[in-house]
Specification:
By secondary structure, this protein is α+β, with helices and mostly antiparallel strands. It is built from three helices and three strands. Helix content is about 30%, strand content about 10%. A hairpin with a 2-residue loop joins strand 2 and strand 3.
Length: about 90
């Protein structure tokens, strides 16, 4: 509320009060995920998600990242590993 008038102030809504838009007003951001999920790695390997989790636990999949209880896999590392045949060190799930 406005202390002087006792009325509510109007707050500009980002969806309706943007003003004139120009090509440079809204930068386009393209974000590529840097990680795979267990389901994505399973699809790449043609195995079950459970198999991926077991292999990750045993250190058989390079680029395994643990964030709390979540397990993610570094995309570049996994793709490089697959490019080498996924078995250069006997690391096959």
């Amino acid at each position: 509320m406005n202390a002087h008038t006792g009325r509510r102030s109007r707050v500009a809504s980002p969806a309706t009060d943007r003003g004139p838009e120009t090509a440079d007003a809204t930068p386009s951001v393209v974000v590529s995920r840097a990680t795979f999920t267990a389901d994505e790695v399973a699809a790449l390997l043609g195995v079950d998600r459970k198999t991926v989790y077991q292999a990750a636990e045993q250190g058989q999949i390079p680029g395994t990242l643990r964030i709390g209880r979540c397990v993610r896999f570094a995309r570049a590392t996994v793709l490089a590993w697959l490019g080498q045949g996924a078995s250069s060190e006997g690391n096959t799930p």
